[in-house]
TrEMBL record, chain A:
InterPro entries found in the cross-reference section: 2Fe-2S-bd_N, FAD/NAD-bd_sf, GcvT/YgfZ/DmdA, GcvT/YgfZ_C, GcvT_C, GCVT_N, SoxA_A3, TrmE/GcvT-like
Transmembrane feature ranges: none
Domain Aminomethyltransferase C-terminal, residue spans: 829-909
Domain spans labelled SoxA A3: 441-524
Ranges of residues in domain GCVT N-terminal: 538-809
Keywords, comma-separated and alphabetical: Oxidoreductase
Oxidoreductase keyword on record: yes
Coiled-coil regions listed in the entry: none
Source organism of this protein record: Actinoplanes philippinensis
Alphabetized GO MF terms: oxidoreductase activity
Record bears the keyword Oxidoreductase: yes
Name of the molecule in the record: Sarcosine oxidase subunit alpha
Family listed: Belongs to the GcvT family.
From TrEMBL, chain B:
Similarity section: Belongs to the SoxB family.
Protein source organism: Actinoplanes philippinensis
GO biological process, alphabetically ordered: tetrahydrofolate metabolic process
Subcellular location: Cytoplasm
Domain Rhodanese: 34-78
Signal peptide as annotated in the record: none
Cellular component annotations (GO), alphabetically ordered: cytoplasm
UniProt protein name: Sarcosine oxidase subunit beta
Length: 917, 415
């Protein structure tokens, strides 16, 4: 309750809005504006974890996204694993707990929504600290479209922690908010930098509201931003040093402590020792002292300082004393509950590196920084480029904003920058390991518990590469991906190997810069939106008649229409009987349809199909097969010649998009000289197959203007006419061997047509049927289904479709392959029929073997009960199949082998007497 | 609650006991009996078996970067042998058998875990293809079962088998002996064992050209100078086509980026390996606790080891379709490798048109699991100058004869 470590005043928290939260089972209070970490510190809770490998107590170490220790599990309002307490904004009712390396996923569904959006801009500024604000304001002054991203809830960046120039921040923020073409996104982390200035960011929209988050708002949103120019103003992260017991709770980055005091009004301890390689820790010490923290000692590691370093740290649960050692070995124990460390600053180079830029080691700086030669259109400003003086950061930011606007074609004006002091001070020292002490407690990666001793072991094995050492020790692989430990690791490894840090380099930065939830990345593409559901114009009718559906590609197709109590088998037998004995109808609208037009359309189709298409007369229809260059069947369907220069090509349902891609690839990359245009018209034409010996009578009843006679409307021809008063195109084709028509009307007219046919056919018991019946009917006739009876290794000849392969054409896709030795080999797998001797239904996928000695022949591709044949039958691809006709082979069943007799693939009406009714 | 101070490591928090010595870092000699180009898993395994099985120890493995830093360091470590075709089943099953004793063979903790692999079926055609594969596997002595959705759920309780999802799970094939291993440790195990047998492992050594005279390879040009060789065995995965081109060989390979990703460490939720083609997912939970997941292939060609973002987004949608519990897991890291894909999606292992130059490439998205098997067979091929029976079907010749091994079209399962 008491918040005994909260300062009396100051900070940017809203002391008027107290918030209650629980951590590890205890109730605490903090304020709006706190992070979970600052609120814990305000309550004196600093130890927040046990380390993964060694189980050592760990405390809050940083104040931002780079935190390696304070990784917590959120339990309420909804479980979320592994968030940094330093970035979780406090809200009322937050329940969190410490964890030891592993988070927990909820066992109930996440009720939140997630989405994504695109944005385009002239100048994207990443980072809302002094450099980023100056850049954004300057660029915005030009009228360019500017987007400014910052991962904090408010703008200001390092100024918030320093407590400086906050009025200027407010002025700039207000100006940006008012600028027409400028968008400011806070709580938004740029996490990926892809090619062509494609930056992706995640905006946390409702997290900070806790249970009060409105359910209709997306919780997180992914921004896909395409920017003409990018300004990286991502700042720098402070790093630690390798010394004995540098992991004790109470060892904290100096800049973090400064942030806790200035931004949150929280004292991270009462009495501090400071250990530093650079000037920045003095500012921290000054601010802490001003807030009432006693600064007991400052150990400055730079040459010329007084030579004290940290030898050890006492205190299991929390720092109790720091042992300082002088150059001559004199030790001095200083009581303290806080050890503030600054091992220097690392420019945040992750996005620069992702963008394809190189980070080069700067010995002056003692850090890796962008080398300035990135191939993408980006500029780096401020601490992200290694400039740590505030005045320099502001100036660099303004200059980058101006240059970026200029490069995008705009002219910026100078903006007002705050007055700053002249940069002055002592350069930093590059120090990695402090002398003496037990290497096994000198930690370089706090989260993975990796020590100098571990690194030494890795280099001792013969490893010479930073990547190997990382993988051997796991340094840098944890949640923080080495944000505080990475450069330190490189420094120590370089020391161990006796090479330059710059020559060793860092490990590679990869997206995401900070962890992003799976759900945010999935966005709305889940459930029914995972892949669009395509339905035909008749879908509602099918649903209302109780059809069961099959997914075919993206389409929902009626599978069968069970009547009371019928199972699949019974329904299909009934539907088949109707098609063979009376009349039946099917929604065939999902067949792919491509309108092919142009003077070279015939030539093009000749190259595409194995058979000759260009000789087709307008008014006629031909079946065609397409192969891949390897000679294997890829798709099949009918080709209708509509006019001299116009064809309508049908494809299988599942392959329609692939076929369109295929034809476009050939047209665009291989044969651009052909004057041909292809357009998908799948969803313009609805198609109804009318099948069965009575189909002619039904059609005649609804198409009075059409001569449906055998002589007047021949097989494989088409007519434009009126059906049920609708403009229609009727084709005389059959995929069942029965007299059949395919009636095409506008998608809009589909239901009218369908209902007219139902009515006209009712006297004949017209029966709707689904894909399963369609499969049985065609299998009885030995017509293959591409993708079911073929698998990309089957030629037209293997299928018995050799007649559809032209011997006359000079060339077509796949032709060359038919003469290859293996493709021309006799005894290839061929499509045959099978009659199980015992009458059982063979499992599709079962294999066929010879009698002893057993040799594998092939497999069952299709297997059905046939009403027309009064028995079960199957189609199979088996080696030398056509030579085995009449012989017995054996099918593998789960419980042994079953004898089956090989037959030709056409089992029903082999003479084709039924085709014309 | 935080545990007591100094308590035992959390599950997966411990490091395996790596040996203290792995390899020397020798300077290259003027020449070797055999040069292996590429120090990935395949190159290292090949060098090991050349020395171990064939007594050929005057061998150098030339690696242009750090050992096993290519696809070997980037794959999702799925190991299985339930391939459709006899030719594939032959080499992958041989490999799986070697995996089963590899830890002892190399005396290295490679974290081989036979936790089983489920290949999900999402359509009636998937079911047919899956049942077919199960029958084929059994005839080839590969363990395989067909499971219905409720059996799938017994093995992996977090898979969403509800019929309401876009592409419901109709069942799965299951190979109990399949699993995962720790890729780096496998590579280091082979490297250490090869080094101990006298093989020179030379890093930061890029082969920039092949020396060929009279139709016969005599050595290589590298950034460290020319090195002579009696035989040269290419094993450069995504870059093989580039190296082979220097000897005038045009390989039927296309190199594409393939991405993968990991989550943070999570308490155990996922006991097995799940793969789905229709809803493109393959995921396991590695021993440390992170979810390891592979994304789809980027369709464009390139050597950049960078993939596109929308592939990752698509991957996450697919993951949440099948595993809604993953919603609030976080992606910690994504990366890309370069996979070399042949027209039939099966590898090329064998002779080349240049004498004494051997080819091992085209493993595409699925060659990690083959590491021991291909090392074994390729070493045999190099040692004898003719293919081992298990890799004989995977000749370069097959693209001329048409005797393809098309797992692509037929099984439609990768990785
Ligand atoms: C994201 C991803 C996921 C995958 N998932 C799986 C999986 O789950 N299961 C599975 O079985 N397989 C998987 N794979 C495939 C598998 O990783 C590869 O097939 C296999 O690693 C290739 O063999 P390798 O280990 O020898 O290749 P690599 O490790 O790539 O080795 C080739 C080596 O050659 C070197 N090299 C290249 N050019 C030269 C040169 N000119 N000179 C010297 N050296 C050179 C490279 O630097 C590299 O180290 C995956 C691949 C990727 C990218």
């Amino acid at each position: 309750m008491s918040q005994e470590f909260r300062t009396a005043q100051g900070g940017l928290v809203d002391r008027g809005t107290p918030l209650s939260f629980r951590f590890d089972g205890r109730e605490y209070q903090g304020f709006r504006g706190d992070t979970l970490a600052s609120a814990l510190l305000a309550n004196g809770v600093l130890r927040v974890a046990d380390s993964l490998r060694l189980g050592r107590p760990r405390g809050i170490f940083a104040a931002g996204i780079e935190e390696p220790n304070a990784i917590v599990q959120i339990e309420e309002p909804f479980p979320e694993p592994m968030l940094t307490a330093t970035t979780v904004e406090l809200y009322d009712g937050l329940v969190a707990r410490s964890l030891r390396g592993h988070g927990r996923l909820a066992d109930r569904p996440d009720p939140a929504r997630y989405d994504s959006t695109h944005a385009h801009c002239d100048v994207l500024v990443i980072g809302g600290g002094p450099a980023g604000l100056a850049a954004a304001a300057t660029a915005a002054s030009s009228g360019a479209r500017v987007i400014l991203l910052d991962d904090q809830p408010r703008l200001g960046g390092s100024l918030l922690g320093a407590g400086e120039h906050l009025d200027w921040v407010d002025t700039v923020a207000a100006g940006l908010a008012a600028a027409d073409e400028t968008r400011v996104l806070t709580r938004t982390t740029a996490f990926g930098y892809y090619d062509d200035n494609h930056v992706v960011a995640v905006e946390r929209r409702t997290n900070h509201l806790g249970a009060l988050a409105p359910a209709h708002l997306s919780r997180e949103r992914v921004w896909r931003i395409r920017a003409r120019q990018v300004v990286l103003a991502t700042g720098a992260h402070e790093r630690s040093l390798a010394f004995a017991d540098n992991d004790r709770p109470g060892v904290m980055l100096a800049g973090a402590a400064r942030t806790y005091v200035n931004r949150y009004g929280v004292l991270p301890g009462r009495r501090a020792v400071v250990l530093t390689t650079n000037d920045s820790a003095y500012a921290a010490a000054r601010d802490l002292a001003a807030a009432g923290v006693e600064i007991a000692a400052i150990a400055d590691l730079r040459p010329g300082a007084d030579g004290w370093t940290v030898a050890r740290v006492h205190g299991e649960e929390r720092v109790s004393a720091v042992v300082l050692r002088n150059e001559d070995g004199t030790e001095r124990e200083v009581d303290a509950d806080l050890l503030l460390v600054s091992g220097g600053w690392n420019p945040v180079g992750a996005l620069y590196s992702q963008a394809g830029g190189r980070l080069a080691y700067d010995p002056e700086l003692g850090a890796f920084r962008p080398d300035g030669n990135c191939r993408q259109a980006l500029l780096v400003a401020g601490a992200a480029g290694g400039s740590y003086d505030i005045g320099v950061c502001l100036a660099e930011g303004a200059a980058a904003g101006e240059r970026a606007a200029d490069a995008a074609g705009f002219t910026a004006r100078a903006i007002v920058l705050p007055e700053t002091l002249d940069p002055a001070g002592t350069p930093p020292a590059a120090v990695w390991t402090l002398p003496g002490g037990d290497a096994a407690t000198q930690f370089v990666d706090l989260q993975r518990d990796v020590t100098v001793a571990d690194l030494a072991r890795a280099t001792g094995t013969g490893m010479r590469s930073a990547e190997h050492v990382k993988r051997y020790t796991t340094a840098g692989t944890a949640h923080d991906q080495g944000k505080t430990g990475g450069t330190l690791t490189s420094g120590v490894v370089a020391e161990l190997l006796g090479v330059e840090v710059g020559a060793l380099g860092t490990t590679t930065f990869r997206p995401p810069y900070a962890p992003v939830s799976f759900a945010a990345l999935a966005g709305r593409d889940r459930g029914l939106l995972f892949d669009p559901v395509r339905v035909t114009a008749l879908h509602g009718w099918h649903v209302s008649r109780g059809a069961l559906f099959e997914n075919v590609g993206q389409w929902k197709r009626p599978w069968y229409y069970p009547r009371d109590g019928e199972d699949l088998s019974a329904a299909v037998l009934r539907e088949c009987r109707a098609a063979r004995e009376g009349v039946a109808m099917m929604d065939a609208s999902t067949l792919g349809k491509i309108d092919v037009q142009g003077p070279d359309a015939g030539e093009f189709l000749d190259r595409l199909y194995t058979n000759l298409i260009s000789t087709l007369k307008p008014g006629a229809i031909r079946y065609g097969v397409m192969c891949r260059p390897d000679g294997m069947v890829f798709d099949d369907g009918t080709v209708i010649r509509l006019a001299e220069e116009r064809f309508l090509v049908t494809t299988t349902t599942g392959n329609a998009a692939a076929v369109l891609d295929w034809v476009e690839e050939w047209l665009q990359t291989e044969w651009p000289q052909l004057r041909v245009r292809c357009t998908s018209v799948t969803e313009q034409w609805a198609t109804v197959a009318l099948v069965g010996p009575r189909s002619r009578e039904v059609l005649a009843a609804v198409a009075p203007g059409l001569d449906v006679s055998r002589a007047g409307f021949g097989f494989m021809t088409w007519r434009d006419t009126e059906v049920a008063g609708l403009r229609a195109r009727v084709c005389r084709i059959s995929f069942s061997g029965e007299l059949a028509y395919e009636i095409n009307v506008s998608w809009w007219d589909a239901l009218a047509l369908w209902e007219a046919l139902i009515e006209a056919g009712s006297a004949h018991g017209i029966t709707p049927y689904g894909t399963e019946t369609m499969h049985v009917l065609r299998a009885e006739k030995g017509y293959p289904i591409i993708g079911q009876d073929t698998d990309g290794t089957v030629t037209p000849h293997d299928l018995g479709l050799g007649w559809a392969v032209s011997k006359k054409k000079a060339d077509f896709i796949g032709k060359r392959s038919f003469s290859r030795t293996d493709t021309a080999r006799p005894g290839r797998k061929q499509l045959v029929g099978l009659l199980p001797d015992g009458g059982e239904l063979l499992p599709e996928g079962a294999h066929l073997v010879t009698g002893a000695p057993q040799r594998v022949l092939g497999h069952v591709t299709s297997s059905y009960r046939s009403a027309a044949l009064g028995r079960t039958f199957a189609l199979a691809l088996i080696s030398g199949g056509r030579d085995l006709i009449g012989q017995t082979v054996w099918a593998t069943l789960d419980d042994g082998l079953a004898p089956v007799t090989v037959t030709g693939s056409v089992l029903y009406d082999p003479e084709g007497t039924r085709r014309d009714g | 609650m935080a545990g007591p101070v100094g308590s035992r490591p959390a599950p997966g928090g411990d490091l395996p006991e790596h040996p203290d010595r792995l390899w020397r870092n020798p300077e290259p000699k003027a020449s070797y009996d055999v040069i292996v180009v590429g120090g990935g898993g395949h190159g290292l395994a090949t060098a090991y078996y050349l020395a171990k099985n064939h007594g050929i120890t005057d061998v150098a493995v030339l690696e242009r970067g750090w050992l096993a830093g290519g696809n070997m360091a980037r794959n999702t470590t799925i190991i299985r042998s339930n391939y459709l075709w006899d030719e594939s089943a032959g080499i992958y099953e041989h490999s799986l058998k070697l995996w089963e004793s590899l830890e002892q063979e190399l005396d290295y903790p490679i974290l081989f875990s036979q936790r089983g692999v489920l290949n999900l079926a999402h359509s009636l055609q998937d079911v047919r293809d899956s049942v077919r594969r199960v029958h084929a596997n059994r005839l080839n002595g590969v363990d395989a079962e067909w499971l219905d959705p409720s059996q799938v759920r017994e093995i992996c309780p977090i898979v969403n088998i509800s019929p309401d999802v876009r592409y419901p799970v109709h069942g799965a094939t299951y190979q109990p002996r399949a699993g995962i291993a720790k890729h780096d440790y496998v590579a280091w195990g082979y490297a250490r064992a090869a080094d101990a047998l006298g093989v020179d492992l030379i890093q930061n050594c890029e082969v920039q050209g092949l020396r060929v005279s009279n139709g016969r390879v005599t050595g290589v040009h590298t950034n460290l100078g020319d090195i002579g060789a009696g035989k040269v065995a290419l094993s450069a995965a995504g870059h093989t086509s580039v190296v082979a081109a220097t000897a005038g060989i045009d390989l039927p390979l296309q190199s594409h980026p393939l991405q993968a990703l990991v989550s943070e460490l999570l308490e155990p939720v996922h006991p097995t390996v799940v793969m789905s083609n229709a809803v493109h997912v393959y995921v396991s939970q590695a021993h440390k606790g992170e979810l390891v997941m592979g994304a789809g292939i980027d369709t464009w060609n390139g050597y950049g080891q960078r993939g596109a973002f929308h592939i990752i987004e698509r991957q996450m949608s697919a993951a949440l379709e099948l595993f809604p519990v993953f919603a609030r897991a976080h992606v910690l890291r994504t990366w890309g490798g370069i996979v070399d894909v042949t027209p039939d999606a099966s590898p090329i292992v064998g002779l080349s048109p240049v004498e004494n130059l051997y080819l091992n490439c085209g493993w595409g998205t699925g060659g990690f699991k083959a590491t021991p098997g291909v090392g074994w067979c390729y070493a045999h091929t190099v040692a004898h100058g003719e293919p081992h029976p298990l890799n004989a079907p995977f000749s370069l010749e097959r693209f001329v004869t048409g005797a393809l091994v098309d797992e692509h079209g037929a099984a439609a399962v990768a990785h």
